[in-house]
Structures
1.
Amino acid sequence: MSENTFTQGSEVKVTTGEKVFFKGIDGIPFEGKHSDNPLSFKYYDENRLLDGKTLKQHLRFATAYWHTFCGTGGDPFGVPTKDYPWLVASDPIQQAKDKMDAAFEFITKMGMPYYCFHDFDLIQEAGSIAESEKRLAVISDYAQQKQQASGVKLLWGTANLFSHPRYMNGAATNPDLQVVAYAGAQVKNALDITLKLGGENYVFWGGREGYMSLLNTNMKKELDHLARFLHLAKDYARKQGFTGTFLIEPKPMEPTKHQYDFDAAIVIGFLREYSLMDDFKLNLEVNHATLAQHSFQHELEVAAGANLLGSIDANRGDYQNGWDTDQFPVNVYELVEALLVILEAGGLQGGGVNFDAKTRRNSTDLTDIFYAHIGGMDAFARALLIAHQILDKSQYKALRKERYSSFDSAEGQKFEAGNMVLEDLKNLAVRQGEPKMLSGQQELYENIINQYL
Ligand code: XUL
Ligand code: CO
């Protein structure tokens, strides 16, 4: 591998291959909010300290390989619009290497510490398992060199168990054992390359794990199979020395009509039922939350409450339509709501902020990918700083505490400790009489966020 490196920011070294894909962009500096340079950070100063950690360490940003380097703008109504120069080689290995050169050039110019991939984002799947394994070996060797040269790390790997036609009836939940076996082979190989590349987590997203019709579906059997499959994957990876976290990414639908990993609460119930709580946590995605008719903040609260807040896929939907548009996050108010939950939970457990987001079909310049990530990183950095200030300086925490203060009383403590019977509650009610009306003060809370924006 012939490459050129120079230092960008604290740890990541800009790493280009022989071809330079993003000519004219040397790296994205932090210039502050008064800068007119669109190719600079206005808020994300990676070295800025907050509670003893840099913003880079707090946020642990990752690029999603599939959207940023493989997504070319095709949709059900039209052909691809983006002519990415790293996708032109007809030889799959050459194309994969060009794509990886472009990926590491981009990631390091952005100063991002992490990336995430599906197995066949890295290189096209071949016609047999053996041939695919060979391709994965070549490209993961190349990735290993690139990671070493640049300092970029792998936040998580995963297997694409939803694109190939063989998975049309599901992968781990397929009614045909031969398809389940194929999915097992693919996950084994994806785990192997994730381990080889020092991946810190491993994700399962079940886009085809669900049903299109209950008429042809034995739901209980499929759920049992899914759990069995996850146990096999977990046992294999642990045996190989993987110490990271397995993450399940909930999504209620799309592409399947109903997906078993519907939302955080349902996944937590599943993990509990099938004894997977010790090894698995959640990877929550904004637009999946909204598809499940929740806010992102809601999904984060549910996961944090179960101590399973692992990682997040950052993006946003569109309020004028109902599908997974995977746009880059820009809404600071909503991000502050999310960051309040994440900070109060003590941060993400082992994960980071992965931009599972794509530029629009009509954003066809290479520079657009930079603008998109700069916008997302700045929005997150700004929201983090604001949420931190709210927790530190405003009445927010005290108000929330005060709202539950009746449980600090002797009677309240007795109730919470499980030392009351129903008659005790009745006697307390009779003794104290009709409760006073206590305002929820929602508008006051909303104003606090606005004040600190
Ligand atoms: C699909 C989605 C996936 C997962 C990884 O909606 O979010 O890209 O993040 O398979
Ligand atoms: Co995702």
2.
Amino acid sequence: MASRNVLSVTPGAPEPEALAKAAQVLRSGGLVAFPTETVYGLGADARNPEAVRRIFAAKGRPADNPLIVHVPDIATAQSLVTNWPARAQMLAEAFWPGPLTLLLPKRPEVPDLVTAGLPAVGLRVPAHPVALALLRAAELPVAAPSANPYMGISPTTADHVARGLGDRVDLILDGGPTQVGIESTVLDLTGAVPLVLRPGGVSLEALQRVLPEVRMAAHLEAEGPRLSPGLAKRHYSPQARLHLIEGRGALLSAAQAARDESLALMPLGSPAVDLPGVQVRPMPASPEEYAQQLYATLHDLDAAGATLILAERPPETPDWHAVLDRLTRAAAER
Ligand code: TXA
Ligand code: MG
């Protein structure tokens, strides 16, 4: 979908003129959608409350859901917090640039709007060359949620952004499809124990290799108090209903029973499935590749008018944790 506000850039070596233009939009308080290695972000100058307000308006996002601030390096992250603990340094050195967001106590210069009034700010250095180059060109911290309407599926292409937000964005930098495909891991470093509030691109095991004391927040395992407002049970949802089904046999039986629906199947790995009149999207058997394709598959099936999606449930092993989290939320009853 070519649109007036879309600017294509070379993913590995973004054109300086395009970056300069995007940086100018950010500096003047506008909204720029840009690729990160996880999903596309909807960025604004994090120091400018008016600009940040536009993000919430464009997404239709409630003001009690805080935004992640994207910075080009550790030094800039340090400049936005009141305390940079040794843990933060170790994790940043190990995983930045990359899909890890660290929550740390914010300085007063970070507007309350960005953190939804919470005392901590989420910080991350994204690994995508376009995102990094934009942050360097703009020379300002960029607040950016995923560039989708509130409760929608996160965008992994510029086309998803254009379809979801259209001209509510001043400029979309098209740097091709994103690599990781699901959002960053959100890690709270403000308490005695570092807690994963949202599983994502960096696994719990990888975090524990650097900091063995990291834990999953209890509410991810059981229903408990919500520490992060963005962790609404239902989230990342397609228009179609999504059901998770254990095992290939049960998947096929459910497909037979759902004759009246505009049905789509997401079987896991091989062997292939072929059912007349059913849209079949085979999903990769590796969690990394599955994550990379998940949102694009859901966007495609929505666009194709599916009313019911049956997905074969991936295994409950740690390496599938983040993918299962997103699938479970997408499948939650509305
Ligand atoms: O990969 C990502 O994280 C993408 C790219 C664009 O960086 N961003 C993203 O942002 O997914 P968003 O806004 O869609 O999700 C951010 C999550 C939300 O669940 C939010 O509640 C939580 O992080 N979060 C952000 N700042 C927080 C804070 N200060 N305290 C608690 N939770 C926070
Ligand atoms: Mg989001």
3.
Amino acid sequence: MSNTAPLTQRNSWKSLQRHYQELKGLHLRDLFAQDPQRGRTFSVEAVGIYLDYSKNRITQQTLKHLLELAEESNLRDSIEAMFRGDPINITENRAVLHTALRSTPDACIEVSGKNVVPDVHAVLDRMSDFSDRVRSGAWTGHTGKPIVNVVNIGIGGSDLGPVMAYEALKSYSDRTRKFLFVSNVDGTDFAEAVQGLDPSETLFIVASKTFTTQETMTNAQTARDWLLKGMQAGPAAVAKHFVAVSTNAAKVSEFGIDTANMFGFWDWVGGRYSMDSAIGLSTMLAIGPANFREMLSGFRQIDEHFRNAPWDKNLPVIMALLGIWYNNFFGSSSVAVLPYDQYLKRFPAYLQQLTMESNGKRVTLSGNLVDYDTGSIYWGEPGTNGQHSFYQLIHQGTRLIPCDFIAFTNTLNPMGRHHDLLMANVFAQAEALAFGKTIQEVQSEGTAQWLAPHREFDGNRPSNMLMLDRLNPAALGKLVALYEHIVFTQGVIWNLGSFDQWGVELGKVLAQRIAPELQSKTVGELKHDSSTNALIERYRSSRQRD
Ligand code: F6P
């Protein structure tokens, strides 16, 4: 799959390096002046997403070289290998098949000779049945009361997807129920989530792929104690108030949850790619099975588009290549994702795990150190709030921060002129970033000479504009799948193992070692560095452990 030349040796890479030297001085003002149709030339529409990428510092030539880079990186073969179920997660020897989670029932996708699609749909059917029972009140708690509170306990991919999707699709959710999310091992997270809840009306979903994650297991144990104490009930009550989502049946039953109340998924679903697996059970409980399936159809439409559309019409490929252009040639280290929809307030946080846990790597698939930058830092806040906070730096700071704006033609909450103003702002921001305001323009307004430089906007700051009709379950599925495939494409070009996350291990191991050193009554000689030893000692003595 990767029998290509090392990245920086590829012809297209070298062409891009030369091309960058020619293009870096060009201003978007000039590029727009040269082509009055530029807004149309560099835009593409597919599966209900309009991408205007004209405000990027590119020409047709840039695009040509970038598309050659995709070709030279064997992107087509890599996509097929993923969709086919090849074990492309080589460090864990696993297939990477989140795309199978949204396949139609008649598809056949094999892992080790077994078609996984029937299992995917069997779990979806069980989730639907369970959701219907909870939503209709047929599923009751231990004392016969219907469930009115659903608390998802999970972290990372077992939390960020569910909480993001719940917030994004709140408008479609069952408003008679509360949905809460506990992730942090900080007890405050749990304490605040269950504040005021009646345990006899509360269902906990313990969501953990491995069912060994320290934070989740600690919170799940606390939830169990809280429930049994609050209900003054014995362990028999657990069955009606706890369900599990996991790949690890043995650990689920060890915890005391009946595996009849477990919804499974598979090791070929990465945690950060799992919101459309059973990890999405809280989403389904909130929005109902039909809406959940709509969301899956959105994912699937982008999957098919990614797999079949030519590169120059391919949304994830174009966006991935533009990301590489800025990351590797302009030296940009971050990407701001700026959704102009309040419901997408957790989308940037969700994308942080998706992008940074996937491509935050410094060795290639063959274990060699890279000699180029990899994963960008993703961050963002919903518009217009960010405008009154960090946009200053994006407009006038010294760093080049490419922005992805996300906007919807229709709002789910039409109210007076709000939506027109929201859209006016998103269009204005992209325009201001690209074209700025020259010092001459500033001076012509009568601004004093000394003040003019402060009020000048140099512009030439790139952005993408993604426009969709309205935020519905399918649109959310499309947006998530779009970024999944951007991450994949960039990982292929950078030649990374995008589907493991060894970088999170060391901290976990050290925390396991330090925890007993904080908790035990007596502790021998501490064997960390002098800084860590002092911190541990200070904590112990202030908690009177010595
Ligand atoms: O922090 C690493 C990680 O493994 C993530 O990749 C994952 O999403 C998260 O922990 C939670 O893991 P689990 O679902 O197994 O509890």
4.
Amino acid sequence: MILPINIYSDDVLRRKAKPLKGVDGAIEDLVESMFESMRNAAGIGLAAPQVGHSLRLLVFDVSALKNYEKEKPMVVINPHILSVRGYNEMEEGCLSVPGVQGDVVRPAALTLKYRNEQFEECVGDFSGMIARVIQHEIDHLDGKLFVDRLEKRDRRKIQKDLDLLAAGVVNADYPVVVPAVVQTSKLS
Ligand code: ZN
């Protein structure tokens, strides 16, 4: 089922998500719907809070990207970064912040402890785009968005776009939950 994506100023995107205690049929259905919603929106990663579930669960599939064709889709539950190596800067975007991009500095590689879709404990090393996507999605589980990590000058450049999203002006070619607009004199 394609689920609508929660947008920028939605409370669920600012909450610290709860760990899963296991995987049952409802979680399996959610995972399937998350993959479906992500692909429908042409995204490469999606975290459960982005579809309104405050759970420490994320999915990604980078196989549409050049040089990553052989990578399998992954389900990551209760992730915990054990260590990081190096830094790099990449341009990021987010299905919850449509129309906005910006350069973000993050560790280039990481070792991750997590549970897979069978809730088995796994440890893996990730680098390149996969390390990038994992960190972006883990931020969602901690109530952070990539725009929080932009340098001040870059943030100023996109502030107007963010204000429009917060005001409910959302242009996306996939279903979204438009945030409830708080009436303020600033917006009139
Ligand atoms: Zn995102």
